[in-house]
């Protein structure tokens, strides 16, 4: 049984039976809860309800072999947790280009949830095991010639991935070691800090307009929160992919480092962030992100319907097919 929030009491609508929102450490799917204002201090992240890990010992079931608590490897993402530092690394390894397929997204969310539920973990570094590519963004084949049901399932998974990363209580650092268009860029933008390899051949940005599609409002909101209105407006309309040095200049990433220093630097930045008490940092993060998160949470079904009707249009299908054809010709 998980403990309840310190704010929980007779003033909560759900008193005396604590709802999911009032229960710290609950892993249930995030849903807006009527008890939220009373049970949780204003500004606390609505998604991840794991309690602050700062100063707490790891919660590991007795008898579980230590190795199991430290690492789990799946098909498309390698997860390693260093319990002494409290830092996990999630390494994308889905050849050829780490595209965000339904399977990838599902595995991503499960892996992150596992880490959230492990109190030994306080920070996560996202990076790639595929040379030169961080992530090629949403898997375009998931958006081409599929059923309405498939589009709905896929888009829910994309939403879930963003809600989990953007709303994550843990410190999230993107160690961007390759190109990162569209959905790949969104993952990086959703982290707390972005370090990119100093290589002008690697680019990052929300290039949706180049595919004839439109970045959803929550992609746009996330981008605006990182770079500001003017830069986001220009970059989004042009579907710009910014080479690493330009990405730094515009604030899309926070710093550039030589490739061989990337993991070391990510660990050093993580240590700086983890030096703060978790609860203060988490509440501050929530305060900064809550409005944007709530906007999608309260319009989630509408957003799925919009994606389905937009993607199902013959003109959009044609654009996506032509884009895939262009990629194939380039690679072949
Ligand atoms: C209402 C809202 C509606 C819609 C919103 C949707 C929002 C969409 C967000 C997205 O993320 S859309 C995806 C955008 N991504 C891209 O534009 C990237 C495209 N890819 C590239 O630019 C390059 O592939 C690269 C990532 C820079 C890597 O280049 P490289 O030369 O190393 O590889 P190559 O191009 O040869 O690709 C290898 C192989 O992979 C296939 N591929 C690449 N990207 C994707 C992808 N995103 N989805 C599916 N498949 C992808 C490519 O076709 C090649 O396949 P092949 O070997 O069979 O030819």
From TrEMBL:
Main location: mitochondrion
One GO cellular component, as annotated: mitochondrial matrix
Enzyme Commission no: 5.3.3.8
InterPro entries for this protein: ClpP/crotonase-like_dom_sf (IPR029045), Enoyl-CoA_hyd/isom_CS (IPR018376), Enoyl-CoA_hydra/iso (IPR001753)
Subcellular location: Mitochondrion matrix
Function field: Key enzyme of fatty acid beta-oxidation. Able to isomerize both 3-cis (3Z) and 3-trans (3E) double bonds into the 2-trans (2E) form in a range of enoyl-CoA species, with a preference for (3Z)-enoyl-CoAs over (3E)-enoyl-CoAs. The catalytic efficiency of this enzyme is not affected by the fatty acyl chain length.
PANTHER family to which the protein is assigned, alphabetical: ENOYL-COA DELTA ISOMERASE 1, MITOCHONDRIAL (PTHR11941:SF45), ENOYL-COA HYDRATASE-RELATED (PTHR11941)
Protein name per the record: Enoyl-CoA delta isomerase 1, mitochondrial
Source organism of this protein record: Columba livia (Rock dove)
